[in-house]
Amino acid sequence: EKSDDSDIWDDTALIKAYDKAVTSFKTA
Amino acid sequence: VGFSPSLRWQQQQVSNFSDIRQSIAKNRKHWSSQTLDDNVLMPKLADEEGWKRFCLGEKLYLGTSSCDPDEEPESALDYCKVGFPPFLSIVSRLNQTTLLMVLEILISWFEEREFVPQLGRWLYALLACLEKPLLPEAHSSIRQLARRCAQFRSTLESREDEKLPALNLLICLVARYFEQSDLADQP
């Protein structure tokens, strides 16, 4: 099954997701 | 008090993490079939020391790190010194047995040392690829991770400490995404 290229993540996507989550941090 | 995250932030992280896991599942076939660069020599399954060096780099592994671990490597060769990041092309190759073993190795490393940025990235990536339902040993490992994060957090002196968001994120994902509710930060 051929994938749509637009659905393929960048190789660094997990790292970016982690950095984004950390950056979004807010305390209660 | 003042160091733990808001409930809203925790809920948002769980939601985002769930989306990310679904995207990883869609991308796994693509990335696991990509050819790795020549310099990426993944350790063998049981090579505990090799995995520590691979993920964290020789500088941390040997305890000789004196430079910023977030510093951008000047060449691909430098990944050997600062550790390979958890690229999708790398983590997509790990089966569940290997993934859990690497997770246990890194948690064990963290038990005796300080938290460092590349450790956070790897723990997050491994948790993102950890399939549910969890095996009993996986339950035990991630609970150990959340407890160590909370213990380390309790030693921080400032809410501005750059390690705090990462520790809170890992606690949040273990407690709320992987349903270890007794370990969750309460609002």
How are the elements arranged and paired?
The complex is a heterodimer of chains A (28) and B (187).
Chain A: H1 13-23
Chain B: H1 7-32, H2 48-62, H3 79-82, H4 88-91, H5 96-112, H6 117-129, H7 136-153, H8 163-177
Helix pairs in contact in B: 1-8, 5-6, 5-7, 6-8, 7-8
Low-confidence stretches of chain A: none
Structural class of chain A: mainly alpha
Name the structural class of chain B.
mainly alpha
Secondary structure: number of strands of chain B? 0
Strand fraction of chain A = under 5%
Return the string of H and E elements of chain A. H
Total DSSP helices of chain A: 1
Tags for this model:
heterodimer, A: 28 residues, mainly alpha, 1 helix, 0% strand, elongated, B: 187 residues, 8 helices, globular
Explain this structure:
- Chain A is built from one helix and no strands.
- In chain B, α5 runs antiparallel to α6.
- The longest helix of chain B is centred in the N-terminal third of the chain and has 26 residues.
- Chain B is globular and about 50 Å long.
- Chains A and B meet through α1 of A and α1, α4, α6 and α8 of B.
In short, what is this structure?
Chain A has one helix at 13-23. By secondary structure, chain A is an all-alpha fold.
